[in-house]
Amino acid sequence: MTRFAPIPKRLAVLALTLAAACGVSHPAPKAGATQFRAVLADTSFSDTDPTPSRDGKWLAFTSDRSGSKQLWVMPIEGGEPRRLTSEPESARAMTPTWTPDSRALLYISTRTKDYNIYKVPLEGGEGKPMSDAKASNRFAIYSPDGSKIAFASNRLKPGQLWGFELYLMGPDGETYDSDPATRLTHNEGSPGHPTWSPDGKFVGYVAKSIDTTKTVSVGSGMVAKRNALFATYHLWKVSVATGEETKLTGQNDEQQQTEEIWPDWSPDGKFVAMQRHVGGKNDVWIYDMTTGSLFPLTNFGDCSKPTWSPDGKSIWFTRWVGQKEDVWVATDLVLTPPPSAAPAKKASVRKTTPPRRPKTAGTR
What we know:
The chain is mainly β. The protein has one helix at residues 9-21, and strands at 35-40, 47-52, 58-63, 70-75, 82-83, 93-98, 104-109, 116-121, 128-129, 137-142, 149-153, 165-169, 182-183, 192-196, 202-208, 215-219, 222-225, 233-239, 245-247, 258-265, 271-278, 281-288, 294-296, 303-308, 315-321, 324-331, 351-352. The strands form seven sheets. It has a five-stranded antiparallel beta sheet with strand order 14-15-18-19-27, with no helix packed on it.
């Protein structure tokens, strides 16, 4: 697997200069500490959704550097970014993920009224639609063996903001009327951001924790029943074989409200990296699948959208600068929880078993 080489000197100098202008400090590296490096630091446009190819050669990302949000790719070892998509100026391309052979990417576009999944080859060209369902279809990602695509869709509750479930379709997409995707989750918390376990047996995702027996404060001394509007996203996993769903984070004994989004399973299956909101800040956190420990990787307070490198030695993520994002990478990863990180109480993990599932769930 390709190791990530240092960024060319001219780009590194530019990144450091711009970061300094934005007030970003770069402390001297410490032995045995995770290192952080700006990759595409240019505050004149926004670069986001960094996703390395599975062969370790390319970095795909979303950027508005051409005037509208499009997909771009660049060699991980350094080089000029190349525009990949040509979506209409009124549309947005976003959230790229790679095919297992690194020859093409899935992405989401708003070229029609609804969000939909498209596929484009690495060489570029017209994006091929992967679904014709009259719904919002989002966050698509191939299974490790390339036989399935997991994605989120609100086809059972079209038009609803929190009406999503996870589905599985074949590698070439779905035809809604004749070969619809199979429903995977039965979760009232509107699942999203699917990520596959390396063995393909589970799909990790986030869903809102909804407990309508509780109330929440809505300000001025008023309270309301807890529903999707007042709930936050937390980490779950679902068995592809049985449909059993297990809640992993956000247990009832939390001392303050937290939220996790953008999960990504590590290549060795031991960890899940995610964006976690706590104490008014967003950082990259790591969930240990074995011990249940949850601990921060960054402490900048402005981090988002982590994605593992294919060799598991780096994590790509973004940092916010005002209303724009910059691509960063964490290397020399230290994935040991600090002494203050208490492990999650396994006994409090909640499980849900879906009702009897039909082979497909494509009926309108």
